[in-house]
Amino acid sequence: METNGVSRRDFIRASGLAGTALCLGFYFPANAKKAQLVSANAAEATGFEFNAWMHIGTDGKITLTDHRAEMGQGSYQSVPQIIAEELEVDLKDIDVVFAKGDPKKYGSQITGGSSTIRGSYKRLLMLGATARQMLIMAAAAKWNAPVADCYAQAGQVIHRPTGNKLHYGELVADASKLTPPKDVPLKPMSDYKLIRKPLKKLDTPMKTNGEAIFGLDKRLPGMLFASVERNPRLRGKLVSFDSTAALKVPGVKQVFKVQMMVFNTTRDGVVVLADSTWAAMQGRKALKVTWDETGFEHVNTVDIYKSHQELLKTKEGLSVKKQGNPDAVLDKPGKKLDVIYETPYQSHAAMEPLNCIAHYQSDKIEIWGPIQAPDWVQGDISDKFKMPKEKVVVNMTFLGGGFGRKAFLDYPQEAVAISKQAGVPVQVVWTREDDIKQGPYRAGISYRGQGAIENGAITALKFKMAGQNIDHWSGPGRGKPNGSTTEGFLNPYFESIKNISFADVPYEMPLPNMWWRSVYASTNGFAYESFINEMALLAGKDQLSFRREYLKDERCQRLIDRMEEVSGWKARKKNEGYGVAITECFDTTVGQVVKVSRNAAGKIKIDKVWAVMDCGWYVNPDIIKAQVEGSVLMALGAATTHEITFKNGLVEQNNFYDYLMPRITDMPTVEVHIMENTADAGGVGEPALPPFAPALTDAIFDLTGKRIRKLPFNMNAV
Amino acid sequence: MILTVNGQKREVNADPNMPLLWVIRDILGLTGTKFGCGAAQCGACTVHLNGEAVRSCVTKVNRAAGQEIVTIEGLSASNNHPLQLAWNELSVPQCGYCQSGQIMSAAVLLRENPHPTDQDIDDAMAGNICRCGTYQRVREAIHKAAAMPMEGAKL
Predict the structure, then answer these.
(1) Domain termination site, one of B19, B53, B74
(2) Has residue A668 got a pLDDT over 50?
(3) Which of A2, A269, A275, A638 sits in a 20 to 30 Å window from B66, CA-based?
């Protein structure tokens, strides 16, 4: 670990030999199933690749490494909040630093799949508890007292019989020489003082006075700023460019061709390097560039959805999951439904446009940027630039939003290529137009739902999806069905409905596509939960009690109880504008009730959103509430205000004036309820997004009788 | 040209057409003011020019010469403007990127209208986009700041 210019090796030696700090971390052996907890001493003795996840100095100051990115979802708060609980310290005594990319030290670092807490919390608890135990053991030895007579509180070890106290700083030298004890017991949930409390976030102050350093804010001595004109067709070659005028722009230093890999395709660009971002942008405007436009389709959005429809009507696709025989039921006469839902292409459009600093040197590559997966970037840059992994240093900054886009490898790679050729550190800055027009996007997906009702109950459900598959685009998944076809759909339905099938009808298109907040659940959820609402109507039942008949799992039943209770569901009147949906995503189930009405001008207005989340074990209820509020707003935008469309192979949208974002005036009141239980932790950052669109369109149906099956739709035109 | 930024006179050698945003960020090194769209659509670059909220991404630097510029770094002496205190109290920011602009817009609102209604807040803040969806808390925090004493804070 390199902190303040001290190399890892020096750091370990200092802490190990002099015993001036207690450092604990995890070791991830290449093929081992479980990470091992080690101390700095053990690491040094055995030559382990050591990572100090936790460093306690002789002054008692604690430094924790956040092994994940902070992009608004709260890892900078929740990671220390977990460790402080078991370590028995105050949050104010903790400093947080971001990890560099290194899977050997931190395991997987990808901040995605809402995995930071659900993937690490048990390890983090154990880390805090083990350090506390070592400090207690060191104190007991000093006092020559039994360990059982000592306990930790507020950064001190206390000897119960005498009331003697030693603070952690006085104990680290001795504690660092101990072998970490195994299987230290963890606190029961009922003893938690910090976990499950709505503590204020540690990173708020620095985000209210301009101090927080995002990728775009990082500066290096001698750095140049870069703006790149890339092929507007998202792939393909450059024929020629004329840089004469660009080089005359004051501040412009260099202009040259650059190539970027996007999965298995390449995209040419022309980069302008200058001494300010603005000069680089001006130079870029002065370029004359000719692109090779041959060799790939010039797609139109309207044709994409026509193809989806055709495929869904004529092909059975690749089976993903099947039980019973839905086709046999659907072939019989009776009450049936057969409808198509469409979801749009979406840009991530994080508020911080993509950017990355790279400094290529002959023996080392260093990167700074808003990056969701530093370990992936390290591996990718090492491969592509033939540099040993340990010589590729990926530094993290705060991320101004990510939503999946900043877990992609294209922009760091392009920055390295530019720095290599320029011979200086460069910061590549994407404009908002680059961010909107260059992808990759969440793919637009279409769904066909077929179902049968007999005696008020579902007798068959059949779903097919058609749309670009991330795995097909990236290469290795070709020929295989999309494994995420059922994502978002609640598992208990499979227990209670005899005949169900899910199939993926492969649709390939050379448009770069990738994951977007809540991934396939964001589109699947709209189709599947809308369909359940339509089936409830066909069965003549209300949407919540209909679901109660199928979701017999106890946690689901309680979730439905809560939804009914908080939204006043039973007291509502028909056609008053209530809608509902429940989806599962990353081990968390979220149910939402949306209430709409018409305002004085006759336009649809969202009166309220009630969201009930069951994410099992959790850290900070206020972060959960914030994530749900944010997920609802992001889902509202994707459902009603923006989509990416293609015309003759070009993206039609440019900036926030034609890729419209919901604003404060559009923000509905969101009331969040969290289910209390002791189940394992589920995700928090994404699962509240999928149920919003189907609950909203269901509410609009309840109010107006109009069923919306295509997103986005214009709320003002309903 | 001479710029007065956060009460300090700074001599700047810049193309007079360069937007104030890039002078502030790339020449003066004050990175709290953010680039979001370059087209006055999102408000992330909001600063005060003679006390008015302007979008620095479309304000040419020569328009600001000789006038009072305040950025987020200069809003208060020690992060203690009522809005900054309220923001902290309610954990408003998520990613935080748009928040400098949100706070700078809200500061002008509160100066002109010390006790705004929800509608006043919506009207004044509609130019600031937040992709994380912190709007509900922005509203609440402005009300909270409005209820705090303004003493010691400069606007």
Answers:
(1) B74
(2) yes
(3) A275
Domains and CATH numbers, chain A: 8-207 (3.30.365.10), 215-295+354-429 (3.30.365.10), 315-345+441-717 (3.30.365.10)
- B97 & B139 share domain: yes
d(CA A306, CA A312): 10
Is the CB of residue B71 less than 8 Å from the CB of residue B4?
no
Note whether B125 and B97 are same-domain residues. yes
Could you tell me the two tokens for A531?
A: 């369909």
Specify the pairing of strand B2-5 against strand B68-70: parallel
Residues of B in contact with A277 (CB under 8 A): 22, 25-26, 35
Token digits of residue A126: 């154990």
Residue A710 burial by CB count (10 A; 0-12/13-18/19+): exposed, middle or buried? middle
Q: Is residue B124 within 8 angstroms of chain A, CB to CB?
A: no
Same domain? B10 vs B30: yes
With an 8 Å Cβ cutoff, is B154 touching chain A?
no
pLDDT in tens, B42-84: 999 999 999 999 999 999 999 999 999 999 999 999 999 999 9
CA Rg value for chain B: 15
Residues B41 and B67 in one domain: yes
A282: closest chain B residue by CA: B18
Q: Does position A477 have pLDDT exceeding 80, yes or no?
A: no
Identify whether B87 is part of a domain. Answer: yes
Domain of B123, in residue numbers = 82-146
Q: Any CB–CB contact under 8 A between B55 and chain A?
A: no
Q: Mutating which of B30, B90, B94, B140 best tests the A interface, going by the most A Cβ atoms within 10 A? A: B94
Q: How far is B99 from chain A (nearest CA, A)?
A: 7
Provide the CATH number for the domain around residue B46: 3.10.20.30
- The 10s digit of each residue's pLDDT in A150-185 is 999 999 999 999 999 999 999 988 988 888 888 899
| Contact between chains at A664 and B128 (C-beta distance less than 8 A) | yes
Neighbours of A93 (CB within 10 A): 17
Residue B91, domain CATH: 1.10.150.120
Contact across the interface for B95 and A71, Cβ inside 8 Å: yes
| Three-state SS letters, A447-472 | EEEEEEEECCEEEEEEEEEEECCHHH
- B147/chain A closest Cα distance in angstroms: 19
Tokens describing residue B21: 């945003």
The size of the A-B interface in CB pairs under 8 A is 192
CA A284 to chain centre: 32
Asked if A671 is an interface residue toward chain B (Cβ–Cβ < 8 A), one would say no
For A397, which residue in chain B has the nearest alpha carbon? B95
Asked if the C-beta of B103 comes within 8 angstroms of chain A's C-beta atoms, the answer is yes
**Are residues B101 and B44 part of one domain?**
no
Distance CA A580, CA A159 (A): 56
- Measure the N-to-C terminal CA separation of chain A; round to a whole number of Å: 57
Closest residue, chain B, to A347 (C-alpha)? B131
Which among B111, B115, B113, B93 has a CA at the least distance from the CA of B102? B93
Q: Say how many Å lie between the first and final Cα of chain B, rounded.
A: 25
ipTM comes to 0.97
Q: B55 and B29, same structural domain?
A: yes
- Report, as an integer, the average pLDDT of A133-150: 97
Determine the residue among B35, B57, B90, B119 to mutate to test chain A binding: the one whose Cβ has the most chain A Cβ atoms within 10 Å: B35
CA pair distance A435, A429, nearest whole angstrom: 10
B154 domain-assigned = no
Tell me the two tokens of residue A95: 């400093």
- Does residue B152 lie in a domain region? no
Number of domains in chain B: 2
Residue A707 has pLDDT above 90, yes or no: yes
Question: At which of B74, B90, B113 does a domain end?
Answer: B74
B87 and B65 in one domain? no
- The answer to whether residue B53 is domain-embedded is yes
For the record, the structure tokens of B81 come out as 């403007």
